[in-house]
Design brief:
Distance between the termini: 15 Å
CATH class of the largest domain: Alpha Beta
Number of helices: 8
Structural class: alpha/beta
Helix content: 10-25%
């Protein structure tokens, strides 16, 4: 089940995949780590990352290896690649070398969505080279996300578009009122239009259904998000927990490829019943192709639930 879910998850976010890029996890650059080679002949490789612990689940690899790079692509992975074969050598001994990590649930619309954080210091600087911003922006605020974050960050940023035109710009600890308390902000027409204009970066639709965000009309809001997602033939990510309607009614509206996020929350409205057993409706949803996303954030994860 774990391998199947992982494969499905990668399939869902295939456009967010990172092929062939390498990130060496260096927390501090020590002197002598990077050296240039002076050879009479032209070296085969631009860069040799030497002696690091290479972790690559796709190759079932967890061992000390050298990684050779040419033209921005991985040219070879092996033991004992001669330093003379590269223009530059990076000494990664004692470090972890891994393909760039992917985070499918972040909020990086810093300065607009109050819960957002800057992309690069928190993503690529920490080994996460590709992310999916999960609904920070809606139709009215997405142009700013594209112009000021997606197009400027070194981190590769994709997005799920919030069904609310204002995105997640309304809610904060000092203003605890969500983007769907007024259902007039849920606009499938504008959502569809924005996605069609940004197919290269928008991967799906996002909706948050917690009662302080969507009020008592969560199923009506979900129906509008469903309408938009179906029209553009993209998945729907649903933020659960503390909803007015029971989770089983929410799950009934989801289709294969959709995602339930904050799945392992510990408070009411989660995937467990009152006897701490997984709800049968959750198992049925997973069996028909609905995915469970951790989305732990600052307080949406419980080890007991997991």
């Amino acid at each position: 089940m774990k391998n199947r879910d992982a494969a499905s998850r990668r399939g869902f976010f295939w456009r967010a995949s990172l092929a062939g890029r390498l990130l060496c996890g260096l927390t501090a650059a020590g002197e002598g780590m990077l050296s240039a080679q002076t050879n009479s002949r032209v070296p085969r490789y631009d860069l040799l990352v030497r002696g690091g612990r290479v972790v690559d689940p796709s190759q079932n690899l967890f061992d000390d290896r050298d990684v050779a790079i040419t033209g921005g692509r991985i040219a070879d992975v092996g033991a004992g690649i001669p330093e003379s074969e590269a223009r530059q050598v990076l000494n990664a001994k004692g470090k972890i070398v891994t393909p760039g990590l992917i985070d499918v649930h972040v909020h990086v619309y810093d300065g607009v969505a109050p819960l957002g954080i800057p992309a690069d210091p928190n993503c690529v600087a920490k080994g996460v080279t590709t992310v999916v911003d999960a609904g920070s922006a809606g139709a009215h605020t997405f142009p700013g996300l594209r112009k000021y974050v997606i197009q400027t960050a070194d981190t590769r940023v994709y997005a799920l578009l919030n069904i609310s035109v204002v995105g997640q710009s309304t809610y904060s600890p000092d203003n605890p009122f969500g983007e769907l308390l007024d259902l007039r902000y849920a606009n499938p027409r504008l959502t569809i239009k924005t996605i069609e204009q940004n197919r290269d970066t928008i991967l799906g639709v996002k909706i948050r259904l917690t009662r302080n965000l969507a009020g008592d009309h969560d199923l009506r809001a979900l129906g509008l998000a469903r309408e938009a997602a179906d029209a553009v033939k993209l998945p729907l990510m649903v933020h659960i927990g503390g909803t007015y309607s029971p989770l089983k009614e929410i799950l009934a509206m989801l289709k294969p490829g959709d995602v339930i996020t904050h799945s392992f929350r510990g408070s009411d409205g989660g995937i467990l019943d009152d006897k701490d057993r997984v709800l049968p409706q959750v198992r049925a949803a997973v069996d028909r192709g609905v995915h469970l996303d951790v989305g732990h954030g600052a307080g949406s994860f419980s080890f007991d639930t997991a």
